[in-house]
Amino acid sequence: MGKLKKLLVAAVLLLMLPITVRGEGYVKITRKPLTNEEIENIMRNGVAWLKNTQESDGHFRYEYIPFLDRYVDDDNMVRQTGAAFVLSEFLISRDGDLYDVKGNVDIALGYFEKNSMYGNVGGRQFRCVILVNEKCSLGATALALIAAINFDRADEEKYNSLIDDYLNFILAAKKNNGGFFDAYSVDPGFFGESAFSSGEALLALAKYYQMNGDVVVREIIDQSYKYFAKIYGDEPDNNFYLWGMAAVKILNEIEPGRSDYFNFVRKYTDWRIDGYRDKRATSHNMCAYIEGVVSAYPVLSDGLNENEKMELMEEIDFWLSKSADLQMKSGDLLWTKMKNRSPKVLKLKNESMAIGGFLTGLDEQAQRIDFTQHCISAFLQRM
Asked: Distance between terminal CA atoms of the chain?
């Protein structure tokens, strides 16, 4: 069967999939798990695509339309630091910089340093990553801090000063109740709060403590964890889950077997998975969802029985397998786009620019650095 015909058949089958509704008539869609070799290839190609988006000054081009061979004129500093964050995770997780990302992380950190500003609140001097118009972002600064920590862990202590300054920003942003302000400008100072950036800040502090063992930082982590476990334990939030689970994963590595970590993560993860039971037929990219579940798994695994572990791993393997379909591969010269339930065939304009990046969805046809970041992070943690 030719490639065009295969794609058209796949489109028709997508329309024929059963609607998965809990209760009577529910049909669970399943998939074969990927092999380690397949995951390795997916990660290698995804990292290569991210590296290919990076410009000489360290900036990552944000969104690419593979069927037009064109980058969209859009940007987001949090997504910039997220791209550097995930590359830095590969720097410390793959022996000997297997994917050759050290230089990419280095120039990205140089770009963030140039796009940072100084501040001083309550006698605490800091630097922070500028989001826009002299306004700093907690999330961007936290992810840049992690990238710097990972770089220095893999190499010489090149970014000690930047690490100290970014850390001071997070400490200055902490509220008395344990939460964090989301943004800073000279006037009015700190303001706002975000579930996303709060999770990123907690993860950055956990990473810093794991490297330095700073007692003061640990006290702040414990206070913030209790605050977040209370508010998101009572009212779970989609936006905190991804980064919050990554943070608790690190905390569990530092102090394994804590029942409060297990109980919080289990309740939160059960809630999160329950919200996706009816979405297995989706054509949208769900890597950010499953990345959080993959982070939760090592916190939960020792406290689950064998059936529970198998069910959780099936959830992870299903979504990773499904996500792999959204990665552009060599030879994918045609892709089917669904519009008004009518298949449409599109041709890649420049295969070398598209290979390795993950589509935002089969019906959206764009590749973004943040979607690819979440996908390859999920695969990395699965290995």
From this structure: 34
Helix 138-154 × helix 102-114 angle, to 10°:
140
d(CA 261, CA 248): 7
Asked if 329 and 45 count as a contact pair (C-beta separation under 8 A), the reply is yes
Q: Which two structure tokens, joined as six digits, stand for 41?
A: 């290839």
Strands 367-368 and 63-65: antiparallel
311 within 8 A of 290, measured Cβ to Cβ: no
87-120: per-residue pLDDT in tens? 999 999 877 788 999 999 999 999 999 999 999 9
Give CA 230 to chain center in angstroms: 24
Residue whose tokens read 């689950």: 304
The amino acid at residue 270 is D
Tokens 């700073």 locate to 214
Query: Are the C-beta atoms of 139 and 204 separated by less than 8 Å?
Result: no
Length of the chain: 383
Residue 165 identity:
D
Residues pairing with 361 in the sheet? 284
* Lowest mean pLDDT across 51-55, 71-75, 249-253, 361-365: 361-365
Percent helix, percent strand, percent coil in the chain, to nearest 5: 55, 15, 30
Q: 86 is written with which tokens?
A: 């995930």
Residues 167-198: pLDDT tens digits?
999 999 999 999 999 999 988 899 999 999 99
SS3 sequence, 253-315? HHCCCCHHHHHHHHHHHHHHHHCCCCCCCCCECCHHHHHHHHHHHHHHHHHCCHHHHHHHHHH
Q: Where are the alpha helices (DSSP H) in the chain?
A: 3-16, 36-53, 77-93, 102-114, 138-154, 160-173, 195-212, 215-234, 238-254, 259-274, 287-300, 306-324, 351-354, 369-382
**Angle made by CA atoms 231, 233, 238, in degrees to the nearest 5:** 85
